[in-house]
Each structure stands twice: as structure tokens, then as C-alpha cells.
Amino acid sequence: MPIAVDACAAQHQGDRKEQQDRVAILPHVRRKGIALAVVADGMGGHTGGALAAEQVLHTARTNLEHFAPVEESARWLLENSMREAHTMIKASRFMNEKDPHSTAVMLLLQPGLASWGYCGDSRLYHYRGRQLLTRTVDHSFVEHLVATGKITPAQALTHPNRNVLMTSLGGQDEPRFSFAETADLRAGDSFMLCSDGIWAYFDEAEMGELLAGNSARTACEKIIDLARQRAAGAGDNLSLAVIRLVEVEVPKARPPAGFVPRGGA
User: Fold this and answer.
1) Between β-strands 101-102 and 131-135, what pairing exists: parallel, antiparallel or unpaired?
2) Residue 117: how many CB atoms within 10 A of its CB?
3) So what's the pLDDT on residue 96?
4) Bridge partners, 120 (sequence order)
5) Residue 192 near residue 125 (C-beta atoms within 8 A)
6) What is the pTM of this model?
7) How far is the C-alpha of 169 from the C-alpha of 173, rounded, in Å?
8) In the chain, which ranges are E strands?
9) Exposed e or buried b for every residue in 147-167, given b needs 16+ CB within 10 A?
10) What letter would DSSP give residue 174?
11) Rg for the chain (alpha carbons), in Å?
């Protein structure tokens, strides 16, 4: 049975004075079946973070418009989008005297293939039904502590340095990128990209329930509502993009008008 895409991007300012996140699901302008989802979480004082995140989105959109899948790899698109954004954000320091940075997570969907890359602590989750298949591992200080066995995942949730990043776009050092992809795509799969203003309030099992049991739009609404409730007036910007793969029933062909089936011999 054919598979269709049910997708939605959403965000909320939370309790911050400014929305410094950016999120979008961008279709390829010439190639059917190709789309790029992007979440960027900007940092760097008033307007600086928003400008950095906007640069990530702008660069991703421009590179997608010129992406030729026959000649270029998904990783080429993802890495160049983030690397070019890093260069532009870093250059903007000299123009606006701010300290802009941004995370980035991107998912490129092509027929039969999903590829993603990221820098920082904005995440991608891949579920099959309610089962988590994979999630990105944050480029953060606490994820490093978890990976080296110094703290548990539960301790990471309340660690005082949980927001300290090891890398980001726009910093003085060269950014660190991570990439992965899968060709094992099925109806019932769902992907979620989100900023830390979302994932900080959910465990993986609950997130799977919300994604599997709702349309993309309804899942976004419920996730934002729950995150806002749990933030209790102290919430960060919230941004997410949900992409669900769903079966589409093909209508049976109707016989032409006036057609009368003949009996067997």
C-alpha cells in the first residue's frame, strides 16, 4: 500500500521575551517527494539568537533549492547547510556586535530514504509506532557525562550544567556535526525534530504515545500544551516538526460505464 507524509511544524514563545527558535518543513521546489525539516535554537542575547537561527533556516532553504539528488548526497546537503550557516553567523559578529549562536537539526526525506544531521542539543527522534528506534545524542556536557558513565540519564535531566553545549554554529571553534540515515522506512514511522524547550519535559515512552496516537497537527498541539503546563511559567521557546508516514488506501478501479462482465466459458 502506498505511503503518504503527514507533517506539521509548530512553535510557541514560551515564557521568554523573544522567540529565538526557527522551524520549517521545506518541500523541494522541483523534485516531488523530497522535503527538508529544520529546527534551529538561537542563542546570543536580544535579537542575536533569532538572527542566528534565521540564518540556519535561510541557508537550508537556499541549499535545498539547488539540491540535485542524482549528483549530490544527502550528507552533502546537510553538512554544507550547517557549515555555511556557521560561517555566516560567525561573520555577523563583526556587524552587529552580538554573540550569536544556534543549534541545528535537519531531516532530509527522499523516496525510500531519511537522512539527518545536527549540531548542538536540538534533537531528532525516530519512532516505529510507539517504539523508539533512535534519537540523536546531544553535543552537550551532560550527554558526555552520561556516555562516559559518570552520571545516569535520570541525573542528566536535573544536572546544573544540562544546558552547556560542547559545540554550536557561530562559535569561535569549528562546529561538530553528526549524521545518520535509514532506508528502512515503513507506514507507522514518525520523526520528530525539536528544541530543548520541548524534549526537556517528556520521557521517550510518552513521546512515542503522543506521536503514534495522533495526527501530526494534533501531536504538535498536545506536545506544546503539555510542555507549557509542565514549565509552570518558566518555559523556554518551544519548536518542533513532526513527520508521520501513513498508509494511503488506493481506490479500486471502476469498470467503464456500460461494461457488462461476461460469464466464464
Assistant:
1) unpaired
2) 23
3) 63
4) none
5) yes
6) 0.91
7) 9
8) 3-12, 21-27, 35-43, 101-102, 104-110, 113-119, 123-128, 131-135, 178-182, 189-194, 238-247
9) eeeeeeeeebeeeeebeebbb
10) P
11) 21
Indicate the residue type of 166: M
CATH class of domain segment(s) 3-247: alpha beta
Sequence ranges of the domains in the chain = 3-247
Cα dihedral 108, 165, 147, 204 sign: negative
Q: What pLDDT is stored for residue 190 in this prediction?
A: 98
Which cell goes with 180? 545518520
Report in angstroms the alpha-carbon separations of 57 from 34, 111, 194: 17, 23, 14
Q: Which three cell numbers stand for residue 34?
A: 523530497
3-state helix, strand, coil in the chain (%, to 5): 30, 30, 40
Q: Is residue 48 within 8 Å of 42, Cβ to Cβ? A: yes
For the chain of 265 residues, list the mean pLDDT of each consecutive stretch of 10: 91 96 96 96 84 97 96 97 96 74 97 97 98 96 89 83 89 94 97 96 96 98 98 96 91 65 54
**Chain centre distance of CA 166:** 19
Whether the CB-CB separation of 192 and 6 falls below 8 Å is answered with no
CA angle 127, 177, 55 (to 5 degrees): 95
